[in-house]
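W.,

You were right to be curious about this one. When I first looked at the sequence I had no strong expectations either way, so I just let the prediction run and decided to look at it fresh. Below is the sequence, 396 residues in total, followed by the output.
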Amino acid sequence: MKLFQNLTVLALEQATVLPYLTYRLAQDGMHVVRLEHPVYGDPNRMIGENVLSEERMNAYYLCINAGKKDLTLNLAEKEGQKIFQALVRELKVDIFATNQLPRNYEKLGIDYETLKSLRSDIIWLGVTGFGPDSNEAAYDPILQARSGLMNLTGEGSGDPQVLGIPLPDMGTSEHAYGLVMKALFKRQATGEGSRIDIAMFESTVSWLTVPITLTDSFGKTITRRGNTHEFFCPVSVYQTSNGYVYLAVGNDRQWKSMISQEMFKSLDKPEYEKNAGRIGDVANLNAAINAVTRKYTSEELIDLFTAITVPVSKINTVREVISDPLVANKLLHAHDPVSGTRITLAPPPNMTPFLTASQQQLSFPPRFGENNRQIYGEMLGYSDDELARLKEKGII
């Protein structure tokens, strides 16, 4: 069933937060067209290694832009806005999305009211750093700092740390994905479009469920604690003879199973019988566990804890994650017909019918303005001479 493949997304996008969202929509089979300024373009095109030995196709850009088409258009010019309006009408755009600053909405002709006048049931999405009334620029690490995420990450005695992935960017994308799906359901049920405003800061703070409730309701101080857990023990990274494992004892029954093993018999103490007692002596307990685990390999410990149903894992490198049997057959791929390059892409959060039908293949991330001739020429009817004139004027 081609549930989403008749839907068109037009996105004035750059950086990570919006491109990741439209990448997710492309994985559903939606027709995604990204818009970029004909001179500046998406800065992420220039980030990372120049793996294809060509301009604006650097490695960082390739990760989340497969499955899309690309147009260049200068919306600061009236003629550019005229072309934009033709795009919205002729492509029958269902979803328009932008992560421009709010002060640019009306100036560029991309505000909700303008688009609603062109397509009455359009779903309009504006992604901002701090809401539609703020023009403050937002970068992921700044949001991690301001939201408290950074203060919750790192060793208790060390400096605050950024997360290993850009959660404010990608978390906002996931929240926006849900809002877009709700808007599509609303449109199907009522025939009405929607305006959606989502702020990266608001999205990021929403992940602080336990820290906010415990801090404001019960006066607790919640801060970074390294690899340990605030409420369960033992939960941490433990050294082995050939690496590390992460062990997570989530209840007293699992603790009893653990200390029933001969190697951990010395930890069978009355004060450790309940989780509260173990939490109260977390530093000494972890040191004692480490003294034991250092005598065994990671593989031996994983076999042991798996046998007694206590959660444990080796701490994998990214390369090891890629080869995990649960990951390896879910990876996505894109092939470049120009260079012959084949790239591997992260698996989706769930395998969509579109990805299954396409054998987990997406079109290669589009080059800068790659689809100008196809869409402006074939779909909007501009001749080659007209396209050359528009390019010379800096409109496309």
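Here's what jumped out at me. The domain at 8-206+329-392 is CATH 3.40.50.10540 (Rossmann fold). And, maybe more interesting for your project: The two ends are 36 Å apart (CA to CA).

Coffee later to discuss?

I.
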